[in-house]
Amino acid sequence: AFPFVKSVAPEAILEQKVNYRGREPKSQVVGVGPEYFAMTRQRMSRGRMLCAEDIEENRRVCVIGSRLARELFLQEDALGKPVRVGPLRVTVVGVLKSNLAGSRDADKAGKSATAGGPQGQSGSEAGATVKDRDADRDLYLPLPLSLSSFWRYKTQDDSFADPTYHRIRELIVQVDSADSVRMAKDAIAKVLKRRH
After folding, report:
1. Would you state the torsion angle of the CA atoms of residues 18, 31, 88, 156, taken in this order, to the nearest 10 degrees?
2. Helix (H, G, I), strand (E, B), or coil: what is residue 25?
3. Contact between 121 and 103 (Cβ < 8 Å)
4. Distance between first and last Cα of the chain
5. Tell me: the pLDDT tens digits for 97-122?
6. Residue 185's pLDDT band (boundaries 50, 70, 90)?
7. 156 phi and psi angles, rounded to 5 deg
8. pLDDT at 187 over 60
9. Are 170 and 188 spatial neighbours (Cβ–Cβ below 8 Å)?
10. Residue 98 in contact with residue 108, Cβ under 8 Å?
11. CA-to-CA distance for 101 and 119, rounded, in angstroms?
């Protein structure tokens, strides 16, 4: 526990196809907690974000990016519709706005640090990019559901002995001030190296 850290949001990237009535547009499946959306400053177009009850009740729900909604559902309303994520069937409870405001990039925002990669998130009128992906094509699942439904086998490079080891790709960390970004990044990196 670091006193300068206000909140943390893990992100798990899953290699799964998203399908609705035979349509499988390019997409990225991401396991997150409810805090993820506020920390990345994502806004809803329709419906709702993932919430604590989704986690507690292990609900099979998802939130999708605007472009993915258009390409999956064409002229249909996405809300309440079932989609397949790999073999898992989930219900769409929210569609994100296309344009994300804000940035996770520590150099731009000055108040957040990420452990797991050098690039950040950027918002623009044309859409948003989170690291190296188009956030408008994301499908977000509750993190525990994503990890329990899509475990993966250990590779030679993994540090865990457990063959069902899950990989959190990134931790998004919000700190109390811009002065704490470097300190938070260094402290978290040391803990991760020591434990993993």
Report:
1. 90
2. coil
3. yes
4. 17
5. 995 443 333 333 333 344 443 334 43
6. confident
7. -60, -30
8. yes
9. no
10. no
11. 17
